[in-house]
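Quick question, first post here. What does this chain look like in 3D?
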Amino acid sequence: MKPARLLRLRRFLGGLSEEQLRQPPSSQALHPARLLAHPRDKEFAAFLICLLQAGDAEESRRTSGLLLNRLGPQPALTLVKANRQMLQDLCQDLQLGFIGPLGLALWLAALRNALRRHRSLADLYTTCLGPAGNRPPLVALDRFVVELGYGLSDEECREQRLGHLLPRPAKGSSTARLHLFLRAVCRPDDGADLGLWSLPRPDQLFLPLDQAILDRLRWLKLTEREKPSRGAVLEVTQQLRLLRPADPAFFHHGLERLVQSGLDMEGMRQLFRHA
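> Answer (accepted):
Ran it through. Tokens below.
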């Protein structure tokens, strides 16, 4: 990448990211997690908010909001203590695309069991990093998902379509919502992210990549890929590391801003030319 273009991209995406971070805290997606007192509850609430961002945005916000309200001020502890009937009550009348109350209750049961085996999601992830703590981030993330789904049968996952809520990097998915969760808990507390974990480090994070974000990156000529995938995540994250080696996922805020703006390709290019 030519130095002049690299500088313009850094100004453009960096300016949009700073603009997004200046939005009121109450408007940030992770605000409900920020209101909780204990780090274990904050990270768990962030996990629910990020992983349930699937399909229709309004339905996703409603589902995660109702779940967190029903779980109360200590959602992780409440879940750990929940029995089968309580899990069914928590998920009553909830729907997330093609996943209904039964599927959500099974998913919560798996999360509950993982939290019973480990004190927190942070402890679970640390275990997945291996004894020396040096397992590659995507390998550790895949083990993290496997551990979260431990005990769910293949038949249950298939019938309730739970693979959508337990996406595995090893299967080639972009796993955008998992990377969004890691962005939320690993980047510094800047009003949007929470700064809860020390590992993985910000320089080890990958860009949360969905179709809307990928389209904007294509318009900026940072990739030619047409579909989000693990390979696309690796490629675009490497491009963004050229702009900010210590924190490539920072630019996700600016890309979100672009998506929210509704600008078409030509409008975005005009904005870029004036950066």
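Residues 176 and 209 are 5 Å apart (CA to CA).
The two ends are 17 Å apart (CA to CA).
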